[in-house]
Design goal:
This is Phage tail protein. The chain is mostly beta strands. About 10% of the residues lie in helices and about 20% in strands. A hairpin with a 4-residue loop joins strand 6 and strand 7. It starts with 13 loop residues before the first strand and ends with a strand. The N terminus is likely disordered.
């Protein structure tokens, strides 16, 4: 038989999702009776998660040699026996199976912690398991035959007791071990009196019991001497006076002192009431902190301040000039986070009023938290590269806007100056319509005073009447001096007028060729980038998670 050489520390049994479903009644209004029929042993360490349906690294078939019984109000005891010959393996964890084959719960040591037990070829592995259940599952399990069960002894069940060591008895922390007379004698004082070798702490010496010390209580011998003596005032009210050496020798021990009387006062030195003094405390001083809503003059402890700051600061958005988030902060980048790892931030998200579904978040509600996968994860807002705009809250400047919604960039309504393309120098074809036949009035230019020569002669050949040739003869053209050159009468300086037939009053129509329907290209200069934005500076934005 192989057993653990030392007591195995308590391990957490994880109830699987399938096991939890098997415990629920058909109407899901309570739990039903369930039978545990077997135990599987794991040969390697594994992550005990609720989604497991089969025990990882199980050694062979599940063991049905189990027994158990209820030994406490919320406790059941199981005993498992592995008698398989030739089986050799280290056992890191185990799983409990129900009668329908469902894996109810799992438990495992880590690789670093090492195996719980080791099974060798010729040994019988006996495993004793105590399972502590909450009130919701109490009494709902039916176990196998208890003929070989060896449960631990409790106040209501007979069983096996483990003997406590001397150190365990002195610490007084183990609730399920037995004390032998020897260890008890070295720990507890006899009723007839005992000699204490070591410091003795008396939590309270009440004034009404000071009669037990009629001569006072002396602490000594040693480098210092203190005397405690009961006294009374004139009215018989008891007092406790403490006397000591004003200046102890070198190496004198300090005097621990506590004053817990309500309304009492401690005066050190000759400082009058209402005065001030400096109090120096060696070591670490501790005190009970006031309630969170306290506003009195009570001293605030570091625990009180830290709890107050943490409660107020979780969920706060911080913008600062740095490249990485400080401690307890995350970049607001829309990441999916574990609800178990960030419980305070998840509680803040639930109370923020801006917790939406994952579908709504992906549709544009990037300024909100999302429920993530609706079980173990949640999503934080994503504000990277965004400007923050204050919510309208009924003012009307951004009416109808929901909290946490994303809004695209937009410019204010305005106009631009536009120009068309230059067409260059050009003309257009034109004509007038026809007006019919008509005449126009006019005149000739003036001629100076003159007369006209009227030549004549006998010759039919040239020059038959050439100007200036006055003596051509007869028809032969000879000169016989008998021809003369007559001239017309002088007409003087004059002009000649001429006229045309009038066409009447009329107008001319001008036509231009039609070019058909057409458009002119208008060019508006393009400017800007892919978004509208003001002048800005990029800082890191984080959210506090604890």
């Amino acid at each position: 038989m192989t057993d653990a050489s030392e007591r195995v520390p308590a391990m957490r049994l994880t109830i699987t999702d399938a096991g939890r479903a098997a415990l629920l009644s058909a109407k899901r209004d309570g739990f039903r009776e369930t039978r545990i029929v077997g135990v599987g042993l794991s040969m390697k360490a594994f992550d005990a998660t609720p989604d497991l349906k089969k025990l990882p690294y199980q050694s062979g078939e599940m063991l049905r040699s189990i027994a158990g019984m209820q030994v406490g109000e919320h406790q059941i005891h199981l005993t498992v026996k592995d008698e398989r010959e030739g089986a050799t393996f280290p056992m890191y964890g185990f799983g409990l199976y129900l009668s329908d084959g469902v894996l109810l719960g799992v438990c495992s040591n880590t690789q670093k912690q090492g195996p719980i037990m080791v099974k060798t070829k010729s040994s019988v592995l006996m495993l004793s398991i105590d399972v502590f259940l909450n009130a919701n599952t109490e009494g709902r399990f039916v176990l196998g035959d208890v003929s070989f069960a060896v449960p631990p002894a409790t106040t209501i069940v007979q069983g096996v007791l483990r003997l406590a060591t001397q150190e365990a008895v002195e610490m007084g922390a183990e609730p399920d071990t037995a004390v032998t007379p020897k260890t008890a004698a070295q720990t507890f004082a006899k009723l007839t009196g005992a000699v204490f070798r070591g410091p003795v702490t008396t939590p309270e010496i009440r004034a009404d019991r000071l009669a037990s010390f009629p001569s006072g209580l002396e602490v000594g011998p040693g480098p210092s001497l203190y005397h405690v003596k009961p006294t009374s005032d004139l009215n018989g009210n008891p007092h406790l006076s403490i006397y000591g050496q004003s200046h102890g020798p070198s190496g004198a021990l300090p005097l621990p002192m506590s004053i817990n009387r309500w309304g009492g006062q401690l005066t050190v030195g000759n400082v009058p009431l209402g005065g001030t003094m400096q109090l120096k405390v060696a070591g670490t001083a501790s005190a009970a902190h006031p309630p969170p809503t306290d506003s009195s003059e009570l001293l605030a402890t570091t625990q009180w301040v830290r709890a107050l700051v943490s409660d107020c600061a979780v969920g706060q958005i911080v913008q600062e000039p740095r490249s990485t988030p400080r401690a307890n902060h995350l970049v607001v980048n829309g990441a999916l986070l574990s609800r178990e790892r960030y419980p305070q931030l998840w509680r803040y998200a639930q109370s923020s009023g801006l917790l939406v579904s994952e579908e709504q978040w992906l549709a544009g509600r990037h300024g909100c938290f999302s429920t993530g996968n609706n079980s173990t994860m949640f999503r934080i807002p994503d504000v990277r590269g965004e400007f923050i705009r204050c919510a309208d809250a009924g003012r009307g400047l951004d009416a109808g806007r929901e909290f946490g919604t994303w809004q695209d960039s937009q410019n204010r309504r305005h106009s631009h100056t536009a120009t068309s393309d230059a067409a260059g120098h050009h003309g257009h074809e034109a004509w007038t319509d026809a007006q019919g036949w008509h005449a126009h009035d006019g005149s000739t230019s003036e001629a100076e005073d003159h007369q006209h020569i009227s030549p004549f002669g006998e010759s039919t050949d040239y020059p038959w009447g050439k100007y200036g040739d006055r003596n051509q003869h007869g028809s032969n053209g000879g000169k016989d001096n008998d021809n003369s050159w007559p001239l017309t009468s002088p007409a003087g300086r004059h002009r000649h007028s001429f006229g045309t037939n009038g066409a009447g009053t009329h107008a001319h129509a001008v036509g231009i060729s039609v070019v058909g329907d057409h458009l002119h290209i208008i060019r508006v200069a393009e400017e800007g980038a892919v978004e509208a934005r003001p002048r800005n500076i990029a800082w890191l934005t984080t959210i506090r998670y604890q």
